[in-house]
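Continued from yesterday's entry.
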Amino acid sequence: MPFSLERTELIKEKLSDRLTNASLNDWERSFLTDMQTKFDLHGSRTRLTTAQYRKLHQLLGIQKDRADETLTPSSKRPQMQPVSASQKPTPRRTQPQRKRTTYRAVSPIRALYAPQRAVKRATRAVMLPIVLVLVVVGMLSAVFEGAGTTSNGRSQAAPSNSVVYLVVTGSTVNQREGPGTEHRVMGQLSEGARVRQLRRQGGWTQIASSVGTGWMSSSFLSTAPRTGTTTTTAAPTLRSSPSANPNSRLLQARDIRVIDGDTVTISGERANVRLVGFNTPETRSPACSAELQVGRSATARLSALLRQAQTIEFERVRCACRAGTEGTSRCNFGRQCGSLKVNGTDVGRTLISENLAVPYQCGRTSCPPRPGNWCK
């Protein structure tokens, strides 16, 4: 039993006396009232905690009973007796604890698609190395093919760079804008004129001539010249002029390409050449159809003069521009200036005499408005 009968009666008597004392606070009164209820119900079988036991004796002012302390469940914990080293038990060898595996419930849908996911994973594992190998092989093939193309580039480019020249066999043949007689006439080429073949379509051939790029009936073109004409394809040779002028030299007709009646391109010159001393009608932006027609006639006539010439002399002259601007876009649209003489006669004088050009003289640093009203 936790308490003896004598001790129980003593505690009950002290509780009654103490509760009649008005010096208790609310907590002490509540605590002692609770203790009185416990002892009234259980008597000597009343069980208290160590803290309750100590507080009870403190408030009641009674000495602790050694027998009660021994019988109290929560009085004191038994002390451990020291054990000698020889009496210590041998530690038991224990197996390392295995990590517990947590299993989760597998849903029916997940189980249904599990084989399909496994197949996809296996496919990726197999296909990825194959794709990488194919990419590497493709890159190596491209490198070797590029090297082969580079090494064989010269032999392959040779046929495409070959130029075919033809000769006009008719006395005066029309060059048209398209392959057919329904297309507009660009100009006329005389017998013996040398042109470059571009391609064929039906009975027509696309050519590049002094008139420009157009079409001509294949029946008036031949790869072999008639008697008395020449079709040499050698590179143009630049011959010095008999005169002492270092800016003058002799040319051949194949050295010159006619752009319009007063502008040409000459082999060996850095830019197009504007012929000085005369002005021909515009062909690129004419004011009317009459000006366009005369401009085309002047272009064709200049081409004919050059083809039929025995001697052609070109002389570079200074353009009428401010100092320091020649050769730039601020001077004559970047063109050079010069003159052409065919058989000793300036081509401008010939065109003026045939009413295909008008005289045009510039000053030292500027030129007047272009003369000639071709739309009358």
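--- second protein ---
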Amino acid sequence: MQEVAVSRSSSWATGGKLAAAVVAVGAVTAGCLFSGVNQTTTGFAYLITVLFIASGWGLTEAIVASVTAMLCYNFFFLPPVGQFTIADPQNWIALGAFLVTAIVASQLSARARNQTTAAIRRQLELERLYALGRSILIGAGDRPAAVRLARHVAQAFELRGVALYDARSGQVYLAGPEDVTIPAEILQRGLAGELDQAENSDCRFAVIRLGTKPAGVLAIRGAVSTTAVDAISSLVAIGLERARAQEIESRAQAARQGEQLKSTLLDAIAHEFKTPLTSIKAATTTVLADEQFTGQYRELLSIVNEETDRLDNLVSDAIQISRIEAGKVTLHRSLVSPNDVIDTVITQMRTRLEDRPVEKNVGAAVSDVYVDRDLIELSLRQLVDNAIKHAPGHTAIRIGAEGRQKDFAFWVTDDGPGIPTGEEEHIFEKFYRGQANRDAVPGSGVGLSVVREIARAHGGDASVASEAGKGSRFVITLPLAREETK
């Protein structure tokens, strides 16, 4: 009903302008008749009137005024006066020239008016686009980004209605005084990448793209040019991308703060553990130093002493891992023997390895390397622990080191079930656990990510080569650094 009323109002306005044009020509005719001016002056008066009408109202009203002026000129001023006939052939030429001049002048004036109107409209659209862009860039709030964007578009362009479909949330967000519906066909084609713009008698539609990927569909009801619709959809895409980037940054910041808090708490708790462990270690060492303390109690106390060492190593590892997870990797490099590093790791893991065969393979030509010994030992313990968890109990675990032309490598090999194709890189991601055994094998999914972080802190990397059913080979590749990097 509202659209019908608007159309009827527009028709009445157009009819009123046409009638006013005829009345204006009539007024000029009456003025020329009463003033007694000659034909030439009357023709110029008509021509000026037509030009004013063309510049003020448009081409249609000017043509109606031109035809009306030609008829009045013929009837009232060209002999025989009072008849729509012309006796002198020269007057036909004059009348034709007047009519052509009036129409051409009307067209030129109307074209200039239209160009001026279009320039003003473009300037207004630019101003509105600027206002929209500014609102999008500085706007913030608790409401979803799509809700704010739809409202900004409706307010900036004074639109009757806006609908914004966000593919990420799968919802349509409305703004403006009128509700707008996006047809299912346009929505489907837009999200499939088969549509950039579309329109019907009711609305204009545009696809919102993030890069080359459709991220939504925008529907606009109101007076907006095609170029402006493109610009609006681009600004909305920028707004969505900005909101998602802010969301990712907020999550990352929260995660970093969580990691720092966890690291601080774990650091404090671990140091609290260190005090009683030191006391237990001192007590057991003192008692075991007494040669008179023998028999079954000595064996039990030796187990306590060994498990104290193991628990102390676990607490130290927990502190290191928490710091690495929080991004606090500090290297304390020194020249170390790869052979000594591997022997230390095997000794520290002796209780876990139990009766499992361990094969050490260090190349004869391997020289000392410039690394952080504690962190490299932590990495190898994580890899050995990973092999213990996944490989059958009767199979061997092989650990070794080799020097190469441009780098150096520690490696751990097992005869476990291997890693499924496609998961080789994912297993180094924090908290990732393999699909096949995430419930069967204990763990948090942190160990391998720590191994890679330590390797990369040294300027190297960690990788795995695996074949389903034939085990895995984890490699820590390190650069051949000879002096500490400042």
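The chain has four domains: 2-125, 140-248, 251-325, 334-479. The radius of gyration is 43 Å. Will compare against the first tomorrow.
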